[in-house]
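Table 4 source record.
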Amino acid sequence: MLTVSATVADGLPHAEWSWKLVLLFLYSGLIGTALAYWAMSMVNKSISALTTSLGTTGTPLVGIAAAAILLGEPIDISLAIAAGLIVTGIALATLGDRLLRGQATASG
């Protein structure tokens, strides 16, 4: 739907091919996509699904911190609240899992 809308609004895209563009596509495809998926599948094999999902839930926090540190992006109140909610969700899921494991161990 978005592709059709963009094509209707702006016409067909035009790219000026260069070696820099080709190298950027190769980097994006090989490093940014293939390596990332391979690394995530290796992680999924070695740790639990809960740990993996909680780790990936924290990804926006890395983006927020990187943007603030490297790009000087301001952290406004809505962004701070969103980050706080992410951290709270991770903490609640972690504590809930520990409580369930403790109950399972106690009951035998």
